[in-house]
Amino acid sequence: MHVFVTGGTGLIGSAVVAELLGHGHTVLALARSEASAQAVEAAGAEPLRGGLADLDVLRAGVARADGVIHLAFGNDFSTADAVARAVADESAALAAMGEELVGSDRPYVTVSGTPWVPGWVATETDPLPLEGPVGGRGRAVNAVLALASRGVRSASVRMPRTVHNNGDGGFAGLLTGIARQRGVSGYPGDGTQRWPAVHALDAAVLFRLALEQAPAGTAWHAVADEGDAVRDIATVIGRRLDVPVEAVPEETFGPLGVIFATDQPASSAYTRDTLGWKPVHPSLLDDLENIVKG
């Protein structure tokens, strides 16, 4: 299958590109810069220059492909406005690519986050949040899944709060960055809230399986660790960086503070049973041992 991938040079995307190439697929990857294009070529894929805001470029990429995996998202979480812009850009891109796929029966795999359900371990059947800082992403993903009624084999891979590799990535990576800046490994609330996690290499396998096998209109959970207490995550970070570990106000984490403070464990039992997905790489707490001081 010739697959168009957005976000193909990021932590998850580079793993997905390698996974696809390693299983006989070819890849056309969106590249925002010359450096990204060179990284795509070095990985063995073909670059397509452009970004998520270049809707005509996205349509052209989809037109050349047998299937699509969308992973790109803005990385600026500094303000609520920045997050809103990233959500709006992604929503427009998803809609444009989806329209290009209507009636083709081609696979269209997009990404979202696992939902949080008060007092419950979230499963694949729980709905995505449609309000709050990332509610727009939930609405956009639901629109992609609704394309199943218009001849698109659409699917969503829901990612946990931390997708990690070699001690970096996801919300835990943000905690590490803040700890480096502030000299304190902080956590909001009492730190007992749980975050699910997955290694990027395991997540990449699930994206491939969803591309190859997922029925139209389905959602899947890329969850290896059901939920690690945020205080435990901060404790490993603090030990590795040799900084104190303590509770800090939600506001420390900007617009994501409310999400950081939420208990949000998630299960992937249905995904594992149905698609045969089996995570094999290190857990988050083990992988965080790779953090290097300095």
TrEMBL record:
Using the record's annotation, list all stretches that form the NAD-dependent epimerase/dehydratase domain: 3-216
Q: What is this protein called?
A: SDR family oxidoreductase
What is the scientific name of the source organism?
Paractinoplanes pyxinae
